[in-house]
Amino acid sequence: MSVLVRSTDEMLMRERKEDLMRYLKQMMQIRRFEETVYDLLTKGVIEGGSHLYAGEEAVAVGAMAAIREDDYITSTHRGHGHCLAKGGKLHLMMAEIFGKETGMCRGRGGSLHLADVSVGNLGANGVVGGSIPIATGAGLSIKMRGTDQVVLCFFGDGAVNNGVFCESLNMASVWKLPVVYICENNLYAMSVAVVRSHAVTEIYKRAVAYDMPGEPVDGQDVLAVKYAVSKAVERARRGEGPTLLECRTYRYFGHSRSDARVYRTREEEQEWRARDPILLLSKRMMDAGIATKEEIDGLAQEVEAEIEYAVKFAMESPYPSEEDLYYGLYAD
């Protein structure tokens, strides 16, 4: 049985201070972005559905720390964190969620379809498991073009019970495609618990059926995620094919705004909050003398100012014009 990947003090000390501060700030940005979106939805300032990533920040940030700018990702319906960690700009993301012309998809994509091809983000996806064949296709494109790029494919625990998961992983293994499949196991597919809906609850074990490595990872530990993804990426770049990683994590908000989370206990929520990814990294850095509380508080203040600017930018931006409303609906 594989052992849950967690980072060690040695891993921490191998990281440069500027990189650790960047990981911490990115996780703070994702957290405050999500909290702000929730507040704006509650107040009716913005409308529509939004699936928030708060609590899972270490997976996105750790994974992106292991790849290059020219590598690709595919995302999920809970895609704000992936977008930001892959280089998305806060103000453009916020404008997109507001449905404004200045958004990264000109207001046409919204929360569920954030994408930024300029930095390799092939997009979020409203279909459960929809990212998996897209990533597999991107991996085939890389192999046909003969580059050494890789694709990170994010999906949730609910997606692994879809047929497209089986088909895509089988194809990727047969053709040795450079894809790292990252299951963000937050224990619940909407309201259905993994323990009630999966015959094999240790999702990484499914890799055996496709003759690829599978590994469980502490998804609250940003350095553990970076370490596990780095190994899988190196393997993919060598032409040895895909890997399945199961990052065990937890979402703080409900599945969506209408979800009161009645299917899980508040005790369970508190247990996971005790291992909050931001608090874990902050404490480890302070205990190791890498950063002071004042430095970490300074990061939080920077993030607060950036979020305030993002909201101001979005609110002051124009909506798409009626004449241009259908731009991009059809391919030329």
Describe the 3D structure.
This protein has a single domain (9-312), classed as 3-Layer(aba) Sandwich (Rossmann fold), CATH 3.40.50.970. It starts with 8 loop residues before the first helix and ends in a 16-residue tail after the last helix. The strands form 2 sheets. Strands 1-2-3-7-6 form a 5-stranded parallel beta sheet, sandwiched between helices. It is built from 12 helices and 7 strands. The protein has helices at residues 9-14, 17-42, 57-64, 80-85, 90-97, 131-145, 163-174, 194-197, 222-237, 266-273, 277-287, 293-316, and strands at residues 72-74, 151-156, 179-185, 188-189, 192-193, 214-218, 243-248. Helix 2 packs across helix 3, helix 2 crosses helix 12 and helix 3 (57-64) packs parallel to helix 9 (222-237). The radius of gyration is 19 Å and the shape is globular. It is an alpha/beta fold. The model has no long low-confidence stretch (mean pLDDT 95).
